[in-house]
Design goal:
The protein is an alpha/beta fold and 581 residues long. The chain has 13 helices and 18 strands. The strands form four sheets. The chain has a ten-stranded mixed beta sheet with strand order 9-8-7-6-10-3-11-12-4-13, sandwiched between helices. A four-stranded antiparallel beta sheet has the order 15-16-17-18, covered by helices on one side. It has a two-stranded antiparallel sheet with strand order 1-2. The longest helix has 34 residues. The chain is globular and about 60 Å long. The chain starts with 6 loop residues before the first strand and ends in a 17-residue tail after the last helix. The N terminus is likely disordered.
């Protein structure tokens, strides 16, 4: 048990309660957003709240999550390797040979310990709203937030839903009615997504935008716990900007003309320039359009679209931007609430996104036939409807490529476009802070986030919860000493990170990254070596210059794969063909 800090007396209304001086913790997670999608990382999208957070905090420009939502969530709440806690598989696309294998359950397994449990044990109030995606107890696939240390919770167990109502985001063959329709060769109807509050089924209010819904619930929980005198851990898991691409109309209108003028190439070039301007990448970083990395022509030129298609695409991107704009506004709403009750200054604030932008499309090689037919049959395809509850769109492959500015590939890939995401941290007032308003390219992993949170809370990742056989201890490291200027790195050369998903793999050791993308996911199938600080776009392989370094990293990966029991994936397997099954 952590040593508690001194207590003081505070008056709330007519009651006297003991107030704990330990810092509150606010963990904010954006969903399916590109590396350059917020202002501090070079975006043209208006995010003044996050701009201010960057000016008062520290932004990490060489930070990696994992390529997909649930897998990142497993690591951010446990600090462990995904395969050790059941998330070697992405629940929407499981490789057939991996089904039933240890570590490939697709939900958080009982050998895990979450930071919510540890903080709850240490006397914190614990709350989460939004997207869970670590277990679905009504389907007997894992557990909900209440079983993992959260006092209050509200939201969805799955990867996403309609942002305006209770409809699902895609046809799920685990749903009996959907499975029956597919078996009969029919296109499924739109079904209703399950919403849960404190792991009990509830009805979602219709017509309330998701950012507003989840932020309001979080404020409700925070207000309800004020009188306890305890610090809080608030895990704010937005579902923006995950598809379906939907947003308030007035915000969409603000961006439409700009994207119509910029087009795909114009946006990527603009963001490349602003990434340099904001100090996120070096001026020597090589620009590339993303096309040379995709021999199968996954990325298309803006000029290949008709005028009508360009209007559609501009509005889709404008809606995506509006989702992020709205998210920023609701983060401000949360900050304003904390400020009004005098808790903002005593709060550790962390912002990041879970993976890169969604590159799946309704047409082409990154599409799923069932999903495409379902959308065409059930949703309004008109230009006017884009952004509303009646329309369901994704940003698609080429906009996803544009959002990262310089990176390669997008969500689902272990290339930098899939895993390098914005990360910012602001310590509580009064704590040592050596990097106010600065940025750093220190190598950092999403596994390091929970260890940093525990460090600031004065809680150790040990004790009775880890005593049972096979319980997994975290492998993340705390960033706190770096943030406070006590060391000049987060991870040293020996603290490498290895990862695998869908048979694609990487190892990062210092500034070097060895990476392999299978041909079934439109990669070369070969290992390549990059200096990810000098070359964040992974444009210039350096294995011929440093063959020994590549072999060293490949050997590290093989040792990791053997230890973890990673299931090999066939070279030609395409995960998009099994989404929803």
């Amino acid at each position: 048990m952590a040593k508690l800090m001194p207590l003081i007396f505070t008056v709330f209304s007519t009651q006297i309660v003991m107030a704990d001086e330990r810092p509150n913790i606010l963990l904010i997670l954006g969903d399916d957003m590109g590396f350059a999608d917020i202002g501090p990382f070079g975006s043209e999208i208006e995010t003044p709240t996050l701009d201010e957070l960057a000016s008062e905090g520290l932004k990490f420009t060489n930070f990696r999550a994992t390529p997909v939502c649930s897998v990142s969530r497993s690591e951010i709440l446990t600090g462990a390797n995904n395969i050790q806690v059941g998330l070697a598989a992405f629940d929407y696309a499981v490789y057939p040979d991996a089904e039933g294998k240890p570590g490939y359950e697709g939900y958080l397994t009982d050998n895990a310990v979450t930071i919510a449990q540890l903080l709850q044990d240490a006397g914190y109030n614990t709350y989460t709203t939004g997207k869970w995606h670590l277990g679905h107890p009504t389907r007997n696939t894992g557990k909900g937030p209440q079983s993992w240390g959260f006092d209050r919770s509200y939201g969805i167990y799955v990867g996403g839903s309609n942002h305006w109502n209770q409809e699902v985001m895609l046809p799920d063959e685990k749903d009996p009615a959907t499975a029956e329709a597919v078996e009969k060769g029919q296109i499924p109807k739109i079904s209703q997504e399950e919403f849960h509050e404190d792991d009990r089924l509830v009805t979602r209010p219709d017509g309330v935008y998701s950012n507003d819904l989840y932020t309001s619930k979080m404020i409700e929980y925070l207000e309800g716990g004020r009188g306890s005198g305890k610090p809080f851990f608030a895990y704010m898991a937005f579902t923006t900007a995950h598809f379906p691409i939907q947003a308030p109309a007035e915000l969409i209108d603000k961006y439409y003309e700009m994207y119509l003028e910029l087009g795909y190439e114009g946006l990527r070039e603009k963001r490349y320039d602003t990434l340099i301007k904001h100090g996120v990448i070096s001026p020597s970083s090589k620009y590339h359009d993303g096309k040379e990395d995709n021999s199968d022509n996954l990325v298309v030129p803006w000029s290949s679209l008709s005028d009508e298609q360009q209007k559609y695409q501009a509005k889709i991107m404008a809606t995506y931007a509006a989702m992020i704009d709205s998210q920023d506004q609701h983060i401000k709403k949360l900050f304003d609430y904390l400020d009004s009750i005098g808790e903002l200054d005593n709060t550790l604030i962390i912002y990041l996104t879970d993976n890169g932008p969604e590159g799946t499309d309704f047409r082409g090689k990154l599409s799923n036939p069932l999903l495409s037919k379902w959308v065409e049959a059930n949703f309004d395809q008109s230009l006017k409807a884009i952004g509303s509850a009646d329309a369901l769109w994704q940003i698609g492959t080429t906009w996803a490529n544009s959002t990262t500015g310089v990176l390669t590939f997008w969500k689902a890939y272990v290339s930098e476009g899939g895993v390098r995401v914005p990360f910012m941290i602001k310590p509580p007032l009064g704590y040592e802070f050596a990097h106010l308003g600065q940025s750093t390219n220190a190598v950092t992993s999403i596994k390091d986030v929970p260890m940093t949170i525990l460090d600031y809370a004065g809680v150790q990742a040990d004790g009775p919860r880890y005593d049972a056989p096979n319980m997994v201890k975290p492998s993340g490291v705390s960033m706190r000493d770096f943030v406070e200027g006590k060391q000049n790195y987060v991870r040293n050369e020996d603290q490498w990170v290895a990862f695998e998903l869908f048979g694609n793999t990487y190892v990062i050791k210092g500034n070097h990254k060895a990476v392999r993308i299978r041909t079934g996911m439109f990669g070369s199938g070969e290992w390549h070596l990059y200096d990810i600080v000098a070359d964040p776009g992974e444009t210039t392989p350096i294995e011929e210059q440093f063959p020994g370094k590549l072999e060293q990293l490949k050997k590290i990966y093989q040792g990791y794969a053997d230890e973890m029991g990673i299931v090999p994936v066939a070279e030609d397997w395409n995960p998009w063909t099994v989404v929803g099954k």
